[in-house]
Amino acid sequence: MRSLFSFIVFFIWHIGSVFAATPVILFDCGGVIVKPDENALVQLIKEVLHLNAAEMKSLTDSMEQAQKEGIYDKIFWPSYAASHGIVLPEDWLGILGDCYVSSMYEIPGMMQLVKELQSRGIHTPMLSNIRERHAKVIADKGIYDAFHPLFLSYAIDAWKPDRQAFDYVLGRLQIPARDCIFIDDEIQNIRAARELGIDAILFESVEQLQQELNMRDLYGKGM
């Protein structure tokens, strides 16, 4: 009986170890899987804020710099508006978000990459910062269908780059930080993940991501 019990314990431990060792790649959504029509966003901003070409150019440059520095929209827009004498409409971030999600389209090659990873036994959950009303639009487009489990900030009540969001995901997946690879296009989210011991990759392009995964033996002909 003791030998049988020892075998059962070993078997359960072995199966659990194999499952825990299965690669997990945690994806962001906007800016990684899909992106908005930038022309639609520019046109909306110009019309609503009544900006001329020069003012729009100045705003665009400031937005790009803010993104590089990891400054979120909720901080950027009130600061920029105050310094330039602009009165923002009520729920301006919601208006931008509506345009953002309604004009979204798949980044060419990304869904194919995700499917290839899944075919190799790699788990592909998603962690995305999003409001409920915007999540419904994306869900209707079928974008979420390829990702499981799905961790949406409004539903889990935690937003990147807060540690609570990453801790929640790791807890639900039942994996340590070192067993997770995180893909995001926002530098502040990448920094936060790395501080927790997560292998985080700043997304730039499909080709760049393929190379990053290949260096980790998770993509390429050698798989």
What does this structure look like?
- 56% of the residues lie in helices and 10% in strands.
- It is mainly α and 223 residues long.
- It folds into 2 domains: 17-35 and 107-215, HAD superfamily/HAD-like (Rossmann fold, 3-Layer(aba) Sandwich), CATH 3.40.50.1000; 38-102.
- The strands form 3 sheets. A 3-stranded parallel β-sheet has the order 1-6-7, covered by helices on one side. Strands 2-3 form a two-stranded antiparallel ribbon.
- Helix 5 packs parallel to helix 7.
SSE map:
Blueprint: H1 2-21, E1 24-27, E2 34-35, H2 38-49, H3 53-69, H4 73-84, H5 92-102, E3 105-106, H6 110-119, E4 126-128, H7 132-140, E5 150-152, H8 153-156, H9 163-173, E6 180-184, H10 187-195, E7 199-202, H11 206-215
Parallel strand pairs: 1-6, 4-5, 6-7
Antiparallel strand pairs: 2-3
